[in-house]
């Protein structure tokens, strides 16, 4: 996350505005607004970018067709994809070359999932009850991959479901260490607090997973961008509040 933000920062200082950014560089409004104030322009489609411009692709990863579109528009591309996401892309290509049917565990519509699914043909499993898994047939072997910002618990259930249906499946747990560490911390503090506040953006996958982890342990939890969003009613009769933040939340 920090690496991706630094890429845009360096581009703004070295080349000057405008610097176009394909998708929000990270899912946090404070970061995005700060960069846009300095001359970054966030777009959702490469075709929105004027020909010959400089564009930074976001940390979430991009499908190959975005690079094709960029080349057709003579854009200078700097790819700020997270190395852990690149690792998932490389795994997908490897298993595809081996002839395996690839199953991706992830949230439909998330930018990381779009980027990963664009690498090679694969099937998305949005949750363990997804009928897609029940209908999936694969005689040539199965490889399971995961979005990097999922809940550890939910991912474990999905992996079990894949292995139950395909006992010989190769399944990789690709959850980012920053995501895992934060979820572990919430698990550890859940018994000692009356409320959990997660600081981060509403569209951040890893922030939402932190809130869900706390709630799954019976602790009320709220996702907020900043202190101005705290409702005093949440704090009534609460003696101890746990605070955490997502991987994309600035210090």
From TrEMBL:
<dbReference type="GO" id="GO:0051745">
    <property type="term" value="F:4-hydroxy-3-methylbut-2-enyl diphosphate reductase activity"/>
</dbReference>
<dbReference type="GO" id="GO:0051539">
    <property type="term" value="F:4 iron, 4 sulfur cluster binding"/>
</dbReference>
<dbReference type="GO" id="GO:0046872">
    <property type="term" value="F:metal ion binding"/>
</dbReference>
<keyword id="KW-0004">4Fe-4S</keyword>
<keyword id="KW-0479">Metal-binding</keyword>
<dbReference type="GO" id="GO:0019288">
    <property type="term" value="P:isopentenyl diphosphate biosynthetic process, methylerythritol 4-phosphate pathway"/>
</dbReference>
<dbReference type="InterPro" id="IPR003451">
    <property type="entry name" value="LytB/IspH"/>
</dbReference>
<protein>
    <recommendedName>
        <fullName>4-hydroxy-3-methylbut-2-enyl diphosphate reductase</fullName>
    </recommendedName>
</protein>
<dbReference type="GO" id="GO:0050992">
    <property type="term" value="P:dimethylallyl diphosphate biosynthetic process"/>
</dbReference>
<dbReference type="Pfam" id="PF02401">
    <property type="entry name" value="LYTB"/>
</dbReference>
<keyword id="KW-0411">Iron-sulfur</keyword>
<keyword id="KW-0408">Iron</keyword>
């Amino acid at each position: 996350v920090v690496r991706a933000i630094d890429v845009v920062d360096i581009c703004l200082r070295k080349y000057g505005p405008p610097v176009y950014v394909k998708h929000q560089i990270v899912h946090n409004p404070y970061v995005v607004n700060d960069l846009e104030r300095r001359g970054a322009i966030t777009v959702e489609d490469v075709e929105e970018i004027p020909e010959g411009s400089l564009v930074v692709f976001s940390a979430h990863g991009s499908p190959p067709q975005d690079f094709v579109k960029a080349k057709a528009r003579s854009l200078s591309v700097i790819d700020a994809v997270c190395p852990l996401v690149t690792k998932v892309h490389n795994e997908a290509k490897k298993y595809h070359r081996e002839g395996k049917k690839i199953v991706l565990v992830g949230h439909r519509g998330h930018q990381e999932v779009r980027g990963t699914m664009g690498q090679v043909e694969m099937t998305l499993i949005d949750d363990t009850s997804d009928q897609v898994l029940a209908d999936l047939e694969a005689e040539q072997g199965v490889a399971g991959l995961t979005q990097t910002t999922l809940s550890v618990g939910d991912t474990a259930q999905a992996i079990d479901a894949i292995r139950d249906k395909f006992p010989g499946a190769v399944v990789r747990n690709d959850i980012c260490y920053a995501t895992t560490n934060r979820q572990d911390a919430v698990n550890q503090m859940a018994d000692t607090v009356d409320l959990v506040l997660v600081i981060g953006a509403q569209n951040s996958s890893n922030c939402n997973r932190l809130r869900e982890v706390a709630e799954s342990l019976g602790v009320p939890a709220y996702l907020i961008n900043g202190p101005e969003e705290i409702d005093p009613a949440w704090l009534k009769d609460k003696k101890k509040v746990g605070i955490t933040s997502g991987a994309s939340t600035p210090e």
